[in-house]
Amino acid sequence: MNLSICVISFYFLLMFSLTLFFSSLFFIINDLSIFVEWEVLSLNTSSIVMTILLDWMSLVFMSFVLFISSMVIYYSDDYMHGDENLGRFIILVLMFVLSMMFLIISPNLISILLGWDGLGLVSYCLVIYYQNVKSYNAGMITALTNRVGDVALLLSIAWMLNYGSWNYIYYLECMKNDYQMTIIAWLVVLAAMTKSAQIPFSSWLPAAMAAPTPVSALVHSSTLVTAGVYLLIRFNLLFINTYLSSLLLLLSVLTMFMAGVGANYEFDLKKIIALSTLSQLGLMMSILSMGYADLAFFHLLTHALFKALLFMCAGSIIHNMKNTQDIRLMGGLISMMPLTCTCFNIANLALCGMPFLAGFYSKDLILEIVSLNDVNMLIYFLYFLSTGLTVCYSMRLTYYSLSGVFNFGSLNSIIDCYWVMLKGMLGLLFLAISGGSMLSWLIIPTPEMICLPPLMKLMALIVSLLGGILGYEIFQFKISWDLKFVKNYSLTSFLGSMWYMPTISTTYLNLSSLKLGYRVIKSVDQGWNEYFGAQSIYNFMMNFSKINSLLQYMNFKIYLVMFVSWVSLMFLLMLF
């Protein structure tokens, strides 16, 4: 039964993905956009209308999301084999994809909120899927951080009432200098920053690695974290050349740098890949804040292809290593898992921007546009330093896991034997190699000449080579970052722990609120309220009912005492 759910879901999503992709080609060639208004319900003079925007961007994105989802579901059939709740898991993943579809096709803030909250709710269910303490903590920080963005989106819906309609697409250009639209822009950027984990909301992204690996492959490639970027691509006209765009540029470049440095200190395989996602999200957000929405969308799609493959390969390695995620226990896997390691290496090189792989076409173009743009020295320096750090942690990961010495148990059965998982990975391998060139023909059909001085033209290649050499040599010769380069332990602790962001997000924000709530419950709800409220009334009624029941016993002595008391009282009143 569970097998049929996986296979049926795979074929259905794959067919739908191919249909949407060929439809997007038709839309690109003919420069079409279709705006659909579907009246769901009409009651007296009130009607509920669902609006759908179909253009080349939404169709291409939907086709990529569905293709990656189909491969991930097919891969899950083997990875989650033996799980009693596999059917529930697949249904949750399908709900996740459906929420993303809502978000992609909506030109309306209300239907965007349906998809947005759907992503948040289902992601919480998927993060806590394994039902242990670590999963619950990760799910809570994910849900609470994303609630900030949900509130911002709800507030922007309230502000959109000033315009008479929630179809924001009508007002973006003509109202972009309006005061109310400026407030909406700030709120939408805040919502996007929480969903795409920009500083200071970055801590939930590595924590969400508590979810099963197929979920991580889906979340980090094309669904949850890209929702914020996609929303800002749609709202891009609102904040171009404003103070908001400058602020977003600074925060996104700092996110990119922070994630790059943090990944070089990390030893958890999934967390390293999660931090690389965070770095790439910073890259997308930064180029988006400069006004290049199509370029950000281009990198979003290419990144989705190789990042899903990277997570699937990592899942296969973790599966073979008996659920061990520490890269220090790996090594020499290329001789035992040649096919998986080949896919892993290709995805890693695509992440680094290796020429003619998927990541190269978008990443190199972004770096050249940054060199061509009028940015200050800090932004320029951080951009290229972060690019070098990406290659550095990729080479470090390659050294620890693929080459080097095998450090796991001598009695093991590590082999490329999970054929269903391998088929899912090979399905993405083709696009991780050729997807970038194919998309560049579609999105940028006219070649653009970017004229730069030779040194600036070669800057991306130079920093990549330097980062690669640094990453491999440092860890090959076991030079410790702590001892040789940075004498100060507190500084290495700061850099290696995402600038203390997880601690700030949990201990300093959540813990104080939880303690305050506990004190309020103990002193008010279970304290004074009980003493003067329900408990006190209960005791009074109990005592009153006891006296009343005593009077109802029909005892002659009681009646006699009452009669004497009554006569005595009347006598006293007559005297006075």
From TrEMBL:
Main location per the UniProt record: mitochondrion
UniProt domain NADH dehydrogenase subunit 5 C-terminal: residue ranges: 393-574
InterPro entries: NADH_DH_su5_C (IPR010934), ND/Mrp_TM (IPR001750), NU5C-like (IPR003945), Proton_antipo_N (IPR001516)
Membrane-spanning residues: 7-29, 49-74, 86-105, 111-130, 151-171, 183-205, 217-237, 243-265, 272-290, 296-318, 330-357, 377-399, 420-444, 456-475, 556-575
GO biological process: ATP synthesis coupled electron transport; electron transport coupled proton transport
Topology versus the membrane: Multi-pass membrane protein
Residues of the NADH:quinone oxidoreductase/Mrp antiporter transmembrane domain: 106-384
Domain NADH-Ubiquinone oxidoreductase (complex I) chain 5 N-terminal: 41-89
EC number, UniProt record: 7.1.1.2
Gene Ontology annotations for the cellular component aspect, listed alphabetically: mitochondrial inner membrane
One MF term in the entry's GO annotations: NADH dehydrogenase activity
Superkingdom field: Eukaryota
Catalytic activity field: a ubiquinone + NADH + 5 H(+)(in) = a ubiquinol + NAD(+) + 4 H(+)(out)
Localisation: Mitochondrion inner membrane
Keywords associated with the record: Electron transport, Membrane, Mitochondrion, Mitochondrion inner membrane, NAD, Respiratory chain, Translocase, Transmembrane, Transmembrane helix, Transport, Ubiquinone
Family: Belongs to the complex I subunit 5 family.
PANTHER family in UniProt: NADH-UBIQUINONE OXIDOREDUCTASE CHAIN 5
Described purpose of this protein according to its UniProt entry: Core subunit of the mitochondrial membrane respiratory chain NADH dehydrogenase (Complex I) that is believed to belong to the minimal assembly required for catalysis. Complex I functions in the transfer of electrons from NADH to the respiratory chain. The immediate electron acceptor for the enzyme is believed to be ubiquinone. Core subunit of the mitochondrial membrane respiratory chain NADH dehydrogenase (Complex I) which catalyzes electron transfer from NADH through the respiratory chain, using ubiquinone as an electron acceptor. Essential for the catalytic activity and assembly of complex I.
Protein name: NADH-ubiquinone oxidoreductase chain 5
Species annotation: Layahima weiweii
